Structures are given as structure tokens and as C-alpha cells.
Amino acid sequence: MKEEFLYHLWKFQKFESELILTTGNEPLKILNPGSQNDLSGPDFFNAKIQIGDQLWAGNVEMHLKSSDWYFHNHETDSSYDNVILHVVWEHDVEVYRKDNSEIPCLELKNRVPEELLNQYKNLLEKDHLKINCENDFALFSTFQVDHWLERLYFERLERKSDEIFQLLKKTGNNWDAVLFIMLAKSFGSKINAESFANMATNIDFKIIQKLSHDQFALEALLLGQAGLIKATDKYGAELQTAYDFLRHKYSLEKSFIDQPRFFRLRPDNFPTIRLAQLAALFSTRKQLFSDLMQASYLEEIREILVVNMSDYWKTHYNFSKSHKARPKCLSKSFIDLLVINCIVPIKHCYYKFIGEDNEEEIFQLISSVRPEKNSIVNLFEELKPEIASNAMDSQALLQLKNEYCNLNKCLQCELGASLLRKSPKYI
């Protein structure tokens, strides 16, 4: 059993609450369980209880055993001086305040119905093939699932925001530079994301701005910094010469975690192609950040991200070996990934930064993008068909699986916790 189960029992009062006695045989009434605290300190703040004829207002702490109070050294922590009730599964020792007064204790192990205990064990203590609630998942209502997925999406968006605001600080509040780094990371996809991001971070964005009129120079800069230029043909030799000049002029140093990889990538995803496309984009759109921030709809963003590759890359995937000419524009599916992983998170952060609420715009934009297809989305689709109707849903399912299911945080999940609130006697 985990303490989270006690939090659930207390928060929703899922135990026999009539004629409660403390372990000291004093009558106890719970007037308000208080607000759960997810940070350090007591587990619930601002609770209100009555012990005998005395009203108390303060904090509540919970442990599996009373002795855990001392195991966690709460007796030396002033944060716990205002605890008015100690709620435990099993009472094995009295606990005292600094003034030697005993903290009242409520033991729960004989007050929880067997049905609820069995539900808890079935959810969190049995082995499952996919996720803990796999046998019940199809029974969750559409409204319940949609409501939780929306919350999960914005929770995931906030997690992504941390990286963006860290970059903003490093770049001296330069949103254009942040966009360049985040786009580079997204252009690298899963295989080369960190390599591309590291490469972009080590280029002063002022250099990108100075070269924005020259697509060839931008190609030389990006491919050279990534260590991808091969002077095995005329174009490669010209790029190498241009890069050597830029490296000397701007005192550039190559610094990346590892060189971009080609292995297991389809040709359209080769790092040479992606960096050439990135160069084309920044040479085409001089005000890319402001253009994207003003775009509210998916089709507007797709128009902004139209790129024209240089002639060489229309007939090459790498240096030397050529093929029949192809345009190699950014595909709709790739742009969708850019919207999901880069553009929407930056929009969210930017409007938060300037103090404007754009949650409705974000909701509409992400909801217009098709859902991603991956093993996690497929898993949930098997449990509840058509659960992912757009990218907001698929992103939320990733958050659900990685941050809740995989970590057995069922009691912090709206869906999992609802399974323990079904007992007719205690709803």
C-alpha cells in the first residue's frame, strides 16, 4: 500500500465516518478535510475538525504507520508544528509535538470497506498486460475521458514550456533565437533532435539574421556546423569553402553531442535535407517568428512553412550521388509535427510572457491537427477505439501513459481515481 491511497481516502472521505474515535478514544468530527499539498510540508492544509468539544483548524499529515513521523524526522521540522491530526493506516506509536502534547491520531485500517480495498489491490497490486485500468478503460464515459485528456494536454504543454523559458533566459529574451533552436530540434526529429538543437544553440542568432539574404551561406553554416559537408563534388567543395570563411569570420566552434546520423532514416529525413530545408526557411521568411505568432490557423502556418530547396538538393539526398529532380517540400505530416512540438508550445509561452490568454486559440489550433500514430496511441485505441480524434488527444495520451500509467500514479489520474469512487455506499 502507498500513502497516495490514504490521500485518496481522506480527500474523498472514503471510509466509515460515523462515530469516529481517535486512537486516544476521543470523538472526532471532520468538518473540512482541507486542500491537498503537492509540495513539501504537511499533506493537507487548512483542515477543520472537532475533537470532543474543541474545534481545530490546521494541517493534517498522513503515514502508513505512526512511527513514520519519526522516520521522516518531522519532530525536528517546524513545518509540522501546526499539524492538528495524524491520519495513519496503522497506529503503532504515539507522536508528540515540541511542547510534549500528543498529536491526535486517526487509524483507518478498520474503517475502509473490503470492496474498496479490493478495488485498490486490483488496480495497483495486480499484474496487468498494458495498463492498470485496462479492464475498465472502455467503460469510462466520453465526457470523462475528453475532460481529462484536455487537462493532460495543457499539463504536457506546461512541461514543454520549461525548456522554452530556459532557452529564453539563455538568449536574453530573444524569441527569434528561441524559435530557431526549437525549430532546429524539431527538424532533427527523434534521431537527430539533440544534435540539431545543440548545433543551433551554439550559433549566435545574429549570424542567422545577417545571412538571411543568402540561402547558400545559411546552408554552408548549418551543414558545416553539423559536420556534414563532404567536398566530394563541386557543390560540396563550394559549401566547404564558404563554411571555412564563415567559421573564420565569426570565430565559430563546432560543439555538439554527436554528429547527426543517417542510420535508419528515410532519405527525406536525412539530416542534410532537413538542414537545407531549415536554411531555405530562414532565408525565405525574414520575420518568421512574428509571422507564426500572428497565424491562428493550420493552413496559415502551412503557407508560411513553404520552402524552396536549392537546385542541388532537388537532385541529391547527400553529397555526390544524384537522382531525378524532386521538389522536397515540407510534407503536411512533417509540418503537423512542427506545429505540435514547436510552434504551439512557443505560442503558448509567448502569450504567457506578454500576459495575454490564448488558451482558446491553442485549443482550436492543436485540435485541427491530425492525431499522431505511435505505439502508445495504438495501445489506447485498442482499449477504447477512436479515443484520439486530433493531436491534442494523442499528446494527452502520451502524457497519460508516461507520467501516470508507467509510474503507477492511478490515484492522481482522474480516470484511475474514479474507479475507487464507485462504491455506492460512499459516493
Q: Outline of this structure?
A:
The protein has helices at 3-11, 68-71, 114-124, 142-170, 175-187, 189-201, 205-210, 215-225, 234-249, 271-284, 288-294, 298-304, 311-314, 332-353, 359-367, 375-383, 391-405, 414-419; strands at 20-21, 27-32, 35-36, 44-51, 54-65, 83-90, 105-107. It is an alpha/beta fold.
Characterise the protein shown here:
With 427 residues, the chain is α/β, with parallel strands linked by helices. It folds into two domains: 3-112, no CATH class; 171-367, no CATH class. The chain has helices spanning 3-11, 68-71, 114-124, 142-170, 175-187, 189-201, 205-210, 215-225, 234-249, 271-284, 288-294, 298-304, 311-314, 332-353, 359-367, 375-383, 391-405, 414-419, and strands at residues 20-21, 27-32, 35-36, 44-51, 54-65, 83-90, 105-107. Strands 1, 2, 3, 4, 5, 6 and 7 form a seven-stranded mixed sheet that branches. The chain is elongated and about 90 Å long. The two termini are 22 Å apart.
Fold topology:
Layout: H1 3-11, E1 20-21, E2 27-32, E3 35-36, E4 44-51, E5 54-65, H2 68-71, E6 83-90, E7 105-107, H3 114-124, H4 142-170, H5 175-187, H6 189-201, H7 205-210, H8 215-225, H9 234-249, H10 271-284, H11 288-294, H12 298-304, H13 311-314, H14 332-353, H15 359-367, H16 375-383, H17 391-405, H18 414-419
Parallel strand pairs: 5-6, 6-7
Antiparallel strand pairs: 1-2, 2-4, 3-4, 4-5
Helix pairs in contact: 4-14, 4-17, 5-6, 5-14, 8-9, 8-10, 14-15
